[in-house]
């Protein structure tokens, strides 16, 4: 192996005006800073807890008073009571599905319950089309 003068390790500090720290960080200063940070965090939590306990009761009372009276949406109100209207709609639909009624008495068209309609289709089969031949211009 050749020993060249260029292979020798170079000094770490090649810049004459660069300075290195001569001491480490003070452990006691870091410990004091950490303790101060913990005290601040727990103090903030305690302050927020007290704030919530004092003002939380006031907002709960105000919220209870506001919900006691019915809150209405701004105009135009499309549905005054949507839940009740939906329940009424479901009740009407159920009644229409399970009852007999005239659809068009002049043409003798009636409405029958869905279960009965299914029974009739099973007994009689599906109705046939009037014409088995396709309309003009339609090819199969």
Overview of this structure, please?
The chain has 3 helices and 2 strands, in the order H-H-E-E-H. A hairpin with a 4-residue loop joins strand 1 (101-104) and strand 2 (109-111). With 140 residues, the protein is mostly helical. It has a two-stranded antiparallel sheet. It has helices at residues 27-68, 82-98, 114-124; strands at 101-104, 109-111. The protein is elongated and about 110 Å long. Among the domains are: 27-68; 84-124, no CATH class.
Low-confidence segments, given as residue ranges, are none
Cα radius of gyration in angstroms: 44 Å
End-to-end separation in angstroms reads: 94 Å
Structural class: mainly alpha
C-alpha geometry: elongated
Q: Tell me the number of helical segments per DSSP (H or I, 4 or more residues long).
A: 3
Give the key terms.
140 residues; mainly alpha
In short:
The chain has 3 helices and 2 strands; from the N terminus they run ααββα. By secondary structure, it is mainly alpha-helical.
Give the arrangement of secondary structure elements.
Blueprint: H1 27-68, H2 82-98, E1 101-104, E2 109-111, H3 114-124
Antiparallel strand pairs: 1-2
């Amino acid at each position: 192996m050749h020993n060249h003068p260029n292979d020798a390790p170079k000094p770490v500090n090649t810049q004459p005006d660069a300075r290195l720290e001569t001491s480490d960080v003070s452990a006691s200063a870091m410990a004091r800073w950490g303790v101060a940070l913990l005290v601040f965090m727990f103090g903030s939590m305690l302050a927020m807890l007290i704030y919530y306990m004092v003002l939380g009761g006031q907002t709960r009372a105000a919220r209870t008073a506001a919900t006691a009276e019915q809150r209405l949406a701004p105009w135009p109100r499309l549905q005054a009571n949507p839940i009740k209207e939906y329940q009424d709609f479901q009740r009407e639909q159920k009644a229409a599905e399970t009852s007999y009624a005239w659809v068009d008495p002049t043409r003798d068209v009636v409405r029958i319950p869905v279960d009965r309609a299914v029974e009739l289709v099973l007994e009689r089969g599906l109705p046939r089309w009037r014409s088995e031949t396709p309309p003009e211009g339609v090819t199969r």
